[in-house]
Amino acid sequence: MFYSRLLCLLPGIVALSLVGNAKSADWPMWRNDAVRSGSSSAELPAQLHLQWRRQLPTPMPAWPNEARLHFDASYEPVVSGSRMFVGSMIDGSVAAFDCATGNELWRFYTNGPVRLAPAAFGERVCFGSDDGWLYCVDAGTGELVWKVFGAPEDREPYHHLGNARLVSFWPVRGGPVVADGIVYFGAGIWPTLGVFIHAVDADSGRVIWTNDNSHAIENVRVDHNYLQESGLSPQGHMLVSGDMLIVPNGRSMPARLDRKTGKLHYFVQGYRNGDSRVVVSGDIALVGSTGVVSLDDGREIASRWAAAGEDAPQGWSGPKADLFEGPLFPYKFLPGCDYRSVIDGHIAYGIDNGTVYAYDMHSATTSLQDQQFNGQDIKPARWDAPTLWKLDTAFAGKKLETRSLLKAGNRLYGHSGQNLFAIELNSDVNKPGKVVWTKELAAEPTSMLAANDRLFVVTSDGTIHCFGGESVEPKQFASAKAAEQAQPDEATELTKSLIEAAAVNDGYAIVAGLKTGRLVEELLSQSQFNVIAIDDDANAINRLRRTFGMDERFQTRFQAIVGDPVDVKLPPYLANLIVTEDADKLQLGSESRLSAVYENLRPYGGALCLSKDVLPSDILQVVVTPERLAGVQSHSTDKLLIVRRTGPLPGSSVWSHETGDAARSFYSRDELVQAPLAVLWYGDGRDHGFYKRKDYGHGLKPQVAGGRLFALQVATNTLKSVDAYTGRLLWSRQLGGSARYASMPDAVYVADERKCLVLDSASGAIRHSFEVAVDQPPAVPVSASDIRVGDDTILIAVRFNNENGIEKGRWNSELIVALDRATGEQLWSRPATLRYNTAAIAVSGGRVFCIDSHSPAEIGFMSRRGEDVSTLPSTILALDARSGRELWKTVRADPPATLTSLHFMSLRTQDDWLAYSTDHDLVIGGKANQTFALNASSGEQVWRKPVRGQQPLILGPETFINQSGHTYDVRTGDLVSGEALFQRGGCNYAVGGKNLLFLRSNCATYVDIESRQEYAIRNLRSGCSNSLVAADGLLNAPCFSVGCVCNYPIQTSFAMFHMPESAEWHGDSPVKQ
To answer: What domains appear along the chain, each with residue ranges and CATH number?
Structure first.
């Protein structure tokens, strides 16, 4: 629902901004006004000279790997009167600077990154923070006037790790826009946690209306023209045009709300071209680099879908690819006409490759273009606007990037690469002007604004340059000085003891409760911990922020939160170390409080270190026991008590192979991963997360063991290890081009060309390198097709080529080799008579089960040559894992189905496959919609049934589920339920666990097996290789979708945990548009 409150504008309301400039010399919002035009009527001096330069820390955008989410790739200052206001994504502050001198006037800190530009009005400035609050402060003093929490007041202020920072479940990333005395903003980016769009009275902070139901919207086309459930995910600077509130949604298309009531008008997504950066030009919006949207109905300007009526396709249709709701084909071919354009009346100015263009937007037209698509003649639309003029600057054709452009008075100010220039416009709008000023900078501009008779330029290194009309010796404000190293004292020795007691010196350390702050300083200096300081004394916290938040040595490793250490809602499993300077503030004298702190410790060794006398003896003796705190161990030193959370979470499990386990079950026995799930962490960057290009099934599914996620970056052949509980990058290792791996809690086993590497799972260091002996000359390429790790045996499937495509034999192998797991001794090898299929190799209970058969591709070639393929054999083998001795074999001659495509989805249907049921000692196998069970001890057939649906099967203890979502009895093959549990959408396959199934139903999705309820995650997709892993008590999902152009708002790695309270937030009744 959405709710509205009566708008009553007080007579004494503080200077209300219209949809334009508050004063002609101001630049009060991102790109100056509520439509984000980038244009100001105020003239600047004819000649500009550098007045001052201030170095800020290098910006750290939330999503460095995804250009469509670069709403915070630069500092975005605004100016009101004589003051500039700059938000910081580094230390979570907003600072005011004197426009004339560059001097800092004040700084206001929030508890999270400030990622979007402030909005100034009258003598006030408002801004949103990742801490979940919208703040309004006095422009002159920085004193707080009011603040509004983005989520409902009855929700606890939960935190999780977002983009490697501790942030609210509901960060304010719908950047504020001010119009007619009202501030509009958006909070929350995960629809399953709730998303909220607010209108707030600018004077009082009173909420006028809130839209709280747009996080669940049915029948939205996001992916390949199919309808699916979606939801708003506001990220970007919001806009106001007339009665319309335009809400950017990250990588997707913007939504339109009625700004009087907050009611959703439309959320149309289409296929591609979405972006977080949006500007309005009349009745259209320019979205990112390629999108143009009609503000009337939300569809892209070249969409032919509505006009097609009943002929419009309702899903993917090659012959009707020109009629998709969201255009499949490019339709805008106007260089520089995009989100960077300056909009001035009916003219849009843009720069591309050093050439400046002026377009007549009011005369834009659409037409049809003749194209061919998959052999079909089609007529997609295109959109064109007349070119009024173009002007080649001195930098034309030099392939220099332009990221910012503005108009001030009668001049355009822009740049090509590091070169600034100004163009005096011609009085005749049909004729180009001329370049009248240039200036080369040391770095590339990323943002520009004109205000207070000055041009302000932000560059990629975080420097703000101020240019004015007076020729002066420019003032230089260097970056913050490194914090002075304190003299060794008691805190120095205490920190050394704490690190030794914790037995770890990296990860996340929480200092909960401060006195002097010295413990924070020493942890930063003596370790590699990411340190989070928490205390309710704002002055103490701000002193630390000023000391360490801008220090380049520590700024990415330090964060401080103002709040009572008891009340701050930290995520579970976060901390490798929890310490305090003031134990009284932790209130550990009760079982409930100690249990809550214990829950914040990371499994596998997270430690709470306290002075010996902190815990009462009854708490220590009764509560600090495995019966009360699972996995707890405690011990004391001379001065310290260490309470450690050891081992895995009780009830959790591992996902050790691409197939779940060596038996190919594709099933997780983890009991903790159950509905509903909430987000624990998200983000991908230099030191966190994982991202790789979509691979259409060629890549390896990620694995989780020992609290670590392991994933292979196929493009660079790099194996990476990520902390499953925080997303922190642990290590990377370069491998050969055909590596396959299996992950155990103690080691990662990598089959790579002619060797098998045993890597330390904690460090990635090579423990052993075992030779894989093959009877082939050195010139013959040797590649690993797959690897299975049993109790005491390593089995490697080998092929003699280096093709990586599945269609070219990636699933095939010509030899299987067994090694001793401890020593690497080669135990045996067995060549295939035809070929082994890696989808038909399972290891368990000291046995190897495999199928030797023709490949579907080979059968297709044979058929086309006229050969009889009706009774080709598939030989199923059971071998002793230690000796290779044949225990039994059986030959099946099921007629092969016609192979219509070599695409991996077809291969998955037609090829041989098998798995092993450890619960019933059965080999379950099949081919071409025929499924059978064999007695694993004898090879005798137990049952054979026509089970349709692609493999892999999800093989649980008593039932298995096929890729059509139907459930069957393992012992009999009988159908248990005729009603499908799910319907897949998109290239992927489903995997399962004790409680849930995980799949791509276009967006990433999980299904509760017992209740049969489907939970769409809505704002992102999983990989073409299923990237959803239930293990170690979490659902982990590294980003396997880089390169996907579909309009999912977010593209990221993430993890989820069971949180019962979140069931109320998910939105089980999606709204209709």
So the answer is: 2-477 (2.130.10.10), 491-602+606-645 (3.40.50.150), 667-880+899-1064 (2.130.10.10)
